[in-house]
Amino acid sequence: VQPSKGIKSKNHTLQPSTMLPTKIKDLIPALSLIPHPEGGFFVETWRSGCEPMTTMGQTGLDETQCQDPQVNLVVAQGRAQNRPDKDERRNALTSIYWVPTVKSPTLFCAKNHSDHIHYYQGGKPFRYYLYDPKTATLSTVVLGPELHKGQKLQVGVKGGIWKCGRIEEEDTTAAEDDNGYEYTIIGEAVAPGFDFHDFNWITKEMIQQECKDDAVKEQLLEFVNSESTKIEEEQKTVEAAGEFYEEGDQKKQRETERA
Questions:
Q1: Is the distance from CB of 251 to CB of 36 less than 8 angstroms?
Q2: Smallest Cα–Cα separation from 108: which of 178, 15, 204, 25?
Q3: How confident is the model at residue 239 (pLDDT cuts 50, 70, 90)?
Q4: What span, in angstroms and rounded, lies between the C-alpha atoms of 204 and 40?
Q5: Where would I find the beta strands (DSSP E) of 158-228?
Q6: Among candidates 20, 25, 21, 42, which has minimal Cα distance to 33?
Q7: Cα–Cα distance measured from residue 7 to residue 132, given in angstroms and rounded to the nearest whole number
Q8: Which in 6, 75, 118, 179 has the greatest CB count within 10 A?
């Protein structure tokens, strides 16, 4: 396979990275994106055995949802308490495009039981903050294309890590630019597959209780979802996330606010 050499135009050569639309309003229909509970937009592109998006972020368990469940479902031991039906099976692998925007640049603080791999796929760089509650350590890494600046093309996050972040602030003094992109495209692969029953918001109360370092505490508090305490106390994480799949005025309002 020959590497791409770009497309020659009358005045200059367009590199492959410039072929993405720079405006989020053009990207939304191109990828069929909808607003995401953690911020920005998303679309599920893969769920082992299932048609993507049809299970609304939950495991497709029966044969009406999942083809060859004996092949496409795996047992995630230790998760019996996560689902009301106590089922520990999960789709083997899920993947999404997650797209934060300049108007919705923040990933609210949350944790998931499954491992995630994040792939840079275009647009602005994105900075992750990762807190390990077992070691009480906070680390940060930038997902982006500028390897000479220490940015990474892939970022792995173990299950149980508190994760948050935002689109990286643009350095106006830098020689390079991001071609005016209004977003970041991040591919996320999750295994065992994503299920909102395995997802929890990190609340301000959790941060106050768990974090002893004031600097770490201050950093994480910047990323708390204002609705997280109420959602967690009422145990409505799955129900609240399901609302994002519904058509209606609220969806249109979110799209307007984020695009």
A1: no
A2: 204
A3: very high
A4: 21
A5: 162-167, 184-191, 199-201
A6: 42
A7: 45
A8: 118
How many Cβ atoms are within 10 Å of 255's Cβ, its own excluded? 16
What contacts 46, CB < 8 A, 6 or more positions away? Answer: 52, 93, 94, 95
CB 236 within 8 A of CB 209: no
d(CA 89, CA 74): 5
- What average pLDDT is seen over the chain? 92
Element spanning 25, H or E: helix 24-31
Does position 4 have pLDDT exceeding 70, yes or no? no
Q: Which two tokens stand for residue 76?
A: 């995630």
- The widest CA-to-CA distance across the chain, in whole angstroms, is 62
Supply 85's token pair.
């039906």
Tokens at 69, concatenated: 């469940």
Angle at alpha carbon of residue 143, lines to 31 and 20, rounded to 5° = 35
DSSP 3-state assignment of 120?
Answer: strand
User: Collapsing DSSP states into helix, strand and coil, what is residue 107?
Assistant: strand
Which amino acid, 243? E
Instruction: Tokens 């039906």: give the residue.
Output: 85
Q: How far is CA 1 from the centre of its chain?
A: 31
Rounded to two decimals, the pTM is: 0.90
Please, which contacts does 137-141 make with residues 24 or more away whose CB atoms are closer than 8 Å? 138/213, 138/216, 138/219, 138/220
